[in-house]
Here is the input.
Amino acid sequence: MPFGGQRFEDVEITKKYCTVLQGIECCGEREFLRDGFPCIKYSGHYFVTTLIYSVLLGFLGMDRFCLGHTGTAVGKLLTLGGVGIWWVVDIVLLITGSLTPEDGSNWNPYV
Here is the structure.
């Protein structure tokens, strides 16, 4: 996975340059390379919010609109959640982790 997975073991770790803030004295270099930063992409999608949208307004495709799946959201809106079937399937997909944001970002900003 390019940005990390759902579990801690799946997330890749990288190094990053850090700079000491102004006004802080330090005995070493002011810029240094630090290891242990997770490689994740987070774009502000919250799992609980999306799940609430899916349960309450899923038949209108609100959950798919929030995740960026615009094409399927319009189809879900026009068919009223596939006459309820698509609505229930999307709730199950969200809970199992199969339905994620379109841009491939993670649900959690911190790992």
User: Anything to note?
Assistant: Helices lie at 47-57, 62-67, 70-78, 80-83, 85-96. The chain has a mean pLDDT of 82.
